[in-house]
Design a protein that fits this description.
By secondary structure, the protein is an alpha+beta fold. The protein folds into five domains: about 5-95, Zinc finger, CHC2-typedomain (DNA Primase, Chain A, Alpha-Beta Complex), CATH 3.90.580.10; about 115-240, Alpha-Beta Complex (DNA primase DNAg catalytic core, N-terminal domain); about 245-375, 3-Layer(aba) Sandwich (Dna Topoisomerase Vi A Subunit, Chain: A, domain 2); about 385-440; about 455-605, DNAb Helicase, Chain A (Orthogonal Bundle). The strands form four sheets. It has a six-stranded mixed β-sheet, sandwiched between helices. A five-stranded antiparallel β-sheet has the order 1-2-3-4-5. It has a four-stranded antiparallel β-sheet with strand order 6-9-10-11, with helices on one face.
Length: about 600
């Protein structure tokens, strides 16, 4: 069994794996000044971005929930990996050959983590299925795709393939590549039977399901013949790398355009995603064997940068039948978790995007998305449709049923307009409906916005001084030796500066990153390390600070300390005058004069509270 990855190789991964590139596979980032970026935190729900990434330090930090670390820590936490698996994933992405401290097991290659092995098996399986689609045995699979308007180029774009009809074609292929039956079963590629493992997917059209970074983590499979007794669509089961409630098919292709356009289109199937993309709706994704839920909301919000300023929108397309209406009503339950505006696009004849494109062309698919209506309007109309509005009893029942929907409209300006409109649809008095909505709201519309607490006064100056020390060690220069732990009155700030002192003189380090690592190594606890990382990525108040700015910040903290000592000496002078100690008074006066001059000197450098 392989031992630890060599420290030199771990350091190489940290240096070459760009944290902003890695984070962007999960979170859309915007420039935040000072060379840093911000986005919605992937580790907790928030409506205002407080998650910061600083590429020059290779660090991230959320100022709301406190999560932070380097690029390896991020991959570990966002993908729920071990340290070794995270390093291996990044090494594979950046083409870094890893070496291990101890000997290898069996083969010449070291043993990898489970996730890395399963990802490799799935990537090989996807390539295998694609090759099989060109075989003579796959003519009916090719016909299936062609009959739905998908030509050869689209098969390649989406990686569509074919699983052979035999029991063990894929299993034998992957075993020849060194994978065990246990690994294939764990990854959902094979099933355990009385005679051993056999292929899960047989005689089906195959769609590879990729994560946002492009790695294959599962498959969706569509049966081709009635002889197949299985379900019409068969998906990979829950595995260590595939969690269906977190997965959106097509996200790897749609992610960048989603971030640019601030739009996501949610459709119901693999062929619908293909049809939308080929028609120019390149922000389309689909759930995989499960209904759209809260975890999918989180995925989309991070990519859409779904905050108060983004003007993002999410468009759901549903079939026009009862199942489609049920899906729309469930989606409405998730609506309040979006800041984005949510819409529904339903084709009047009940056609899904794939059939619509096949019958009427690409333009019809684009027109479908343009024809979207607000999700709550669709839900209101669908709710009212259940009642007989020709009777008083039916109108009252409809009013009661629709009240929670109206109360849930987030926009306080738009809500009265819909109350007025719905009253007309129901043929009821507007005031009566408005009163009913007012009772039903129960103040649920009020929303809290997570904001970063603003430092003031002494805490702000001490924080900015530490940020200068950590982020711009070369600019701090000789001023570092003028600083002392006693200058920092906030306990955590004093702890951080103490770690800086233990790390040594910042001018002796060859780069800011090595200086920062030395400070982290000198920190006495995880709490202090977390604060150091936070300060290292929090942008300074100005972009591109120069030596004059940094020195002025440090002069300010020295000036404030002098002010505190002057106050103490004045109190001491008063006590000595009461006691009649002339010698003590003279010494205090001398010290006061010296401190006053020192404070004036520091004030000349100071730029005021930061």
């Amino acid at each position: 069994m392989a031992g630890r990855i060599r420290e030199d190789d771990i350091n190489a991964v940290r240096e070459r794996a760009r944290i902003d590139e890695v984070v962007r596979e999960t979170v859309t980032l915007k420039a935040a000044g000072g060379g840093s970026y911000k986005g919605l935190c992937p580790f907790h729900d928030e409506r205002t971005p407080s998650f910061h990434v600083t590429p020059s330090k290779n660090l991230y930090h959320c100022f709301s929930c406190g999560e932070g670390g380097d690029v390896i820590t991020f991959v570990r936490k966002v993908d729920a990996l071990s340290f070794t698996e995270a390093v291996e994933k990044l090494a594979a992405k950046y083409g870094i050959q890893l070496r291990y401290e101890e000997g290898t097991s069996g083969s010449n290659a070291p043993r990898q983590g489970q996730r890395t092995r399963l990802i490799e098996a799935h990537n090989l399986a996807a390539a295998f299925y694609q090759e099989q689609l060109a075989s003579s045995a796959a003519q009916h699979a090719r016909n299936f795709l062609l009959q739905r308007g998908f030509e050869l180029d689209s098969w390649r774009t989406f990686g569509v393939g074919y699983s052979p009809a035999g029991w063990d074609a894929l299993s034998n292929y992957l075993r020849s590549k060194g994978f065990t039956a246990e690994e294939l079963i764990a990854g959902g590629l094979a099933v355990s039977g009385q005679r051993g493992a056999y292929d899960r997917f047989r005689d089906r059209v195959m769609w590879p399901i990729r994560d946002a970074g492009g790695d294959v983590i599962g498959f969706g499979a569509r049966k081709l013949t009635e002889a197949d007794q299985g379900p019409k669509y068969l998906n990979t089961p829950e595995t260590p790398i595939y969690k269906k409630s977190h997965v959106l098919y097509g996200l790897d292709l749609a992610r960048r355009d989603m971030a640019k356009s601030h739009q996501a289109v949610v459709v119901e199937g693999y062929t619908d995603v293909m049809a939308c993309h080929l028609a120019g709706i390149t922000t389309a994704v689909a759930t995989c064997g499960t209904a759209f839920g809260s975890d999918h909301v989180k995925v989309l919000r991070r990519i859409l940068m779904d905050d108060e300023t983004s003007n993002a929108e999410v468009v759901f397309t549903f079939d026009g039948d009862a199942a489609g209406r049920k899906a729309a009503l469930k989606a409405f339950g998730e609506d309040q978790k979006f800041v984005a505006s949510t819409f529904v696009a339903v084709e009047s004849h009940g056609l899904d995007p794939c059939d619509l494109r096949l019958q009427q062309g690409d333009g019809a698919v684009r027109d479908l998305i343009k024809s979207r209506v607000p999700l709550f309007e669709f839900v209101i109309r669908s709710t009212i449709a259940d009642y007989d509005l020709t009777t008083a009893e039916g109108r009252v029942a409809a009013m009661r049923a629709v009240t929670p929907v109206l109360a849930g409209i987030k926009d306080p300006v738009l809500r009265p307009e819909y109350v007025r409109t719905v009253a007309g649809w129901l043929g009821m008095d507007e005031a009566a409906l408005r009163n009913q909505v007012g009772k039903g709201s129960k103040n649920a519309v009020a929303q809290s916005t997570t904001t970063r607490a603003v430092d003031t006064g002494v805490a702000a100056v001490e924080r900015t001084a530490l940020k200068c020390v950590l982020q711009a060690p070369a600019l701090v220069g000789e001023w570092f030796n003028s600083l002392e732990e006693s200058l920092f009155t906030i306990a955590m700030a004093a702890e951080v500066f103490s770690a800086c002192q233990r790390a040594g003189d910042p001018l002796t380090f060859d780069s800011p990153s090595t200086w920062l690592q030395a400070v982290l190594d000198a920190a006495p606890s995880d709490e202090v390390k977390a604060k150091i990382r936070e300060l290292a990525v929090d942008p300074l108040p100005i972009d591109n600070p120069d030596e004059r700015y940094v020195q002025a910040v440090l002069a300010r903290i020295l000036e404030m300390d002098a002010g505190r000592r002057i106050s103490e000496l004045k109190a001491e002078l008063q006590r000595s005058s009461i006691n009649g100690d002339d010698a003590a008074q003279n010494q205090i006066l001398t010290d006061l004069l010296a401190l006053e001059q020192y404070r004036r000197d520091m004030r000349e450098y100071s730029i005021g509270d930061q």
